[in-house]
Amino acid sequence: MTHPSIVILTGAGISAESGLGTFRDEGGLWAQHRIEDVATPEGFARNPQLVVDFYNARRAHAATATPNAAHAALARLEAEYPGDVLLVTQNVDGLHEMAGSQRVVHMHGALNGALCAACDHRWPAPLEMYVGQACPSCGQPTARPDIVWFGEIPYHMDEIQETLSRADIFAAIGTSGNVYPAAGFVQLASHVGAKTVEMNLDPSETVALFEETRPGKASETVPLWVDSLLRR
Ligand code: OAD
Questions:
Q1: I want to staple 218 with a disulfide (CB 3.0 to 4.6 A). Which of 32, 70, 102, 161 is the partner?
Q2: Is residue 22 in contact with ligand 1, taking CB distance under 6 Å?
Q3: Ligand 1 center to residue 137 CA distance, Å?
Q4: Boundaries of CATH 3.40.50.1220 in the chain?
Q5: What is the Å distance from ligand 1's center to 12 Cα?
Q6: CATH of domain 21-64+112-147
Q7: Statement: residue 232 has pLDDT above 90
Q8: How far is CA 175 from the centre of its chain?
Q9: How many angstroms separate the alpha carbon of residue 218 from the centre of ligand 1?
């Protein structure tokens, strides 16, 4: 018997109970900072210091966080489920890996990565990056955080789309459904006949596209959902 193949998309809501703020909830990051200042290539060109400081602060904050029961449940699913599981995250923290997940695709980049804007070389970011930091490969002073900004193309889209095209189950956890292409994954999954489930505190922008919704805190809904899959 083959086991249904599962694709999971996570967003900032899964890390909220680990103390990391979301973007669009009341008092979230986008209420405190302008997206165009800190999360676009144009913002970085205008004021690199502001952008580097923003991600240094987020990196320092993420370094103090620990995974919660939702991250742990997804790691357990990957370890114990006999079928295929792909975890796609929009999050730039490392909490899925810290919880033990091994197959994690960071479609919006990662705080622990540095990227050369000149030659695309990638290397582990120090806790504090600085403006004009040299790329260890080409030597240009063009290091930047390895974060996908608005107007840039998310990473690993071929792998994600290919896996979604043969998914039997698609779950979205802790994401508001505001940012594409991630917000469109539910449509791709439905199109190929996958069962779709949303686990979110509040209904997302795309809640109507899901077959099933499990409202509530991720630390409560995700372990129950994982239990139901492992009991099959
Ligand atoms: P958002 O801040 O847009 O949405 C977070 C969602 O999590 C909301 O719908 C909340 O209801 C939900 N939520 C909050 N606490 C929760 C909890 N304890 N359990 C379950 N759900 C909870 O964050 P994202 O959807 O991840 O991109 O945002 C998507 C992208 O927009 C981010 O990756 C980032 C941002 O701009 C870039 O910076 C490129």
A1: 70
A2: yes
A3: 34
A4: 1-20+68-108+154-232
A5: 4
A6: 3.30.1600.10
A7: no
A8: 9
A9: 12
> From ligand 1's centre to the CA of 201, what distance in Å?
10
Looking at residue 1, what is its pLDDT?
Answer: 65
pLDDT averaged over every residue in the chain:
97
Instruction: Kindly report the protein residue whose alpha carbon is nearest to atom 15 of ligand 1.
Output: 13
Cβ of 131 below 6 Å from ligand 1: no
Residue 24 has pLDDT above 70, yes or no: yes
Q: Is this model's pTM higher than 0.85 or not? A: yes
Q: How confident is the model at residue 214 (pLDDT cuts 50, 70, 90)?
A: very high
Residues 6+ apart with CB under 8 A from 47: 37
Question: CATH classification of 1-20+68-108+154-232 is 3.40.50.1220, yes or no?
Answer: yes
Take atom 16 of ligand 1 and give the residue whose Cα is closest: 13
Task: Cite the active site residues.
Answer: 108
pLDDT for 66-108, tens place per residue?
999 999 999 999 999 999 999 999 999 999 999 999 999 999 9
